[in-house]
Design a protein that fits this description.
Layout: H1 6-21, E1 31-36, E2 41-45, H2 53-57, H3 67-86, E3 89-90, E4 99-101, E5 107-109, E6 116-117, E7 124-125, H4 138-141, E8 146-147, H5 148-165, H6 175-184, E9 188-190, H7 195-204, H8 215-218, E10 236-240, H9 249-262, E11 266-270, E12 282-291, E13 296-306, E14 315-317, H10 319-332, H11 341-346, H12 348-353, H13 378-383, E15 405-415, H14 418-456, H15 462-465
Helix pairs in contact: 3-5, 5-7, 9-14
């Protein structure tokens, strides 16, 4: 902690006080020791190697978590926040980045720097903006005093929406439009979500704070008994690759082998067991790997499956939810406090948001775009004991492939720590998206150039004029 910063010291005091009150809770990051010297204060926290919940979301296609997995984590989150509120603590910064995971992928709520401690009869707080801009509640946007418990319910609803839909319910690059959608409670939900999930989110994302149920009541919602719940599958993951490798698996094999060698990973070719693969999936080659510094053993298999185009996700305005919320709001007088678009544009809160840090989110990269990342060495993960940077750039699924079959790299966890495997998967995915895509694009350009030359070169001169791709 830097010396002389009173605001930072106050946040640190809140975090220490809250974590001490929650000592021993199975889903709260453990504060193990507080150290201090003449200039700094140090908090020694529990080591969590599984990253955050946002990293788990990125393991799934289109950043969408199945409801069974979302239910598994939302139950843990709701029970944790219900315990916090019963002890007089409100978190005030509930978002996916602060839901950390241990090596067994169990949730641990962290970052209590914005937390507040309250008495049972009074949990009202000032208008200071806390948390992510996409998780701000309507009462915060309007500059009102707010209930810490009620904004926790709102931001938990935003987090649940992110898990099931892949982006925040209120998301717009224009600050005024963003504020308007928050205050009016206007958002969209995919039609493929269960009725229970949509109903639960509508209760949590109610614009009237008094109408939002407590976490104790929310845990009794039918959604939690509407189906199974289970942790994410972390022992076998997939990385989409360029469609070129459907017909050039040998090129992918050479590139992957070269990358593994550069990162000091021991490997050798293995036999493909097509009987162990799912229906309609065919294995092209298999590499058995062992990373000594991470003590991880894993299997890489290039596979193909039929290319079925996913139906375009249909969305519907949740007008009924908004109207129902306003019906309750009118009775309580809340609707009178809503601002028009013009008032919001000129309000103090809007001016404040122009300097407010926009936290990176899973929706900030457009679908189908593969950022050009400089992949870190596998070995760097063994040297770093801190949690990964969950606010950094992330990778999306590969662009739509149009061939009859599409290729993907199957990564199977064999032996080691689950948390280390998830980290390795993220690094391996970054490397694949750089090396495999760059090589495939170059090869595709050569083929396109060759085809253009074929069209404009006399047949008698083709052999001398057209360079063959390597």
């Amino acid at each position: 902690m830097p010396p002389g910063n009173c605001a930072y010291m106050s946040r640190l005091d809140h975090e220490i006080e809250s974590l001490k009150m929650l000592t021993g809770h199975p889903h709260v990051v453990e504060l193990e020791e507080v150290l201090e010297d003449d200039e700094n204060m140090y908090l020694r926290m529990e080591l969590l190697g599984g990253g955050s919940l946002i990293d788990i979301v990125r393991l799934y296609p289109n950043n969408l978590l199945p409801e069974e997995v979302a239910r598994y984590y939302m139950r843990q989150l709701f029970e944790t926040l219900e315990c916090c509120h019963s002890l007089g603590i409100c978190h005030r910064d509930v978002r996916l980045e602060n839901m950390l995971l241990d090596n067994k992928a169990k949730l641990k709520l962290g970052d209590f720097g914005q937390s507040g401690v309250f008495t049972a009869a009074w949990d009202m707080f000032s208008t200071t903006l806390v948390g992510s801009v996409y998780s701000l509640s309507p009462e915060q946007v309007l500059g009102m005093c707010y209930s810490g418990r009620k904004i926790d319910v709102w931001s938990a609803g935003v987090s649940m929406y992110c898990l099931l839909v892949g982006h925040p319910p209120f998301y717009d690059l224009d600050s005024t439009d963003l504020l308007t959608s928050i205050v009016t409670g206007t958002y969209k939900t995919p039609l493929n979500l269960s009725v229970e999930a949509i109903n639960l989110m509508s209760k949590m994302l109610n614009v009237d704070p008094d109408a939002r149920p407590s976490f104790e009541k929310l845990l009794e919602h039918p959604w939690f008994s509407a189906g199974d719940e289970y942790p994410p599958v972390l022992d076998k993951l997939e990385i989409p690759v360029h469609p070129l490798y459907v017909r050039r698996p040998d090129l992918a094999e050479m590139i992957i082998a070269s990358v593994l060698y550069q990162h000091k990973t021991h490997f050798h070719l293995g036999a493909v067991d097509n009987d162990a693969l799912p229906d309609k999936v065919e294995g092209m080659w298999c590499i058995k790997c062992h990373h000594p510094s991470l003590d991880l053993k894993f299997l890489l298999t290039l596979c193909t499956r039929p290319n079925t185009l996913d139906e375009e996700e249909s969305e519907v305005e949740t007008g009924k939810h908004v109207q129902d919320g306003f019906a309750v709001a009118r009775d309580s007088g809340w609707a009178d406090l809503r601002r028009s678009h013009e008032v919001l544009e000129n309000s103090a809160i809007s001016r404040t948001l122009s300097q407010y840090p926009h936290k990176r989110h899973i929706a900030t990269t457009a679908p189908g775009v593969v950022p050009q990342l400089r992949a870190q060495s596998f070995g760097n993960m063994a040297e770093s004991k801190s949690a990964p940077n969950v606010n950094g750039p992330h990778l999306q699924a590969s662009p739509m492939q149009t061939s009859a079959r599409r290729a993907f790299l199957s990564v199977s966890f064999q032996e080691g720590e689950t948390g280390a495997f998830v980290k390795l998967y993220r690094k391996l995915k970054a490397i694949c998206d750089e090396s495999l895509w760059e090589a495939a694009e170059k090869q595709t350009q050569r083929l396109e150039e060759r085809n253009r030359l074929v069209q404009h070169t006399p047949s008698s001169e083709i052999g001398n004029a057209i360079p063959l791709p390597h």
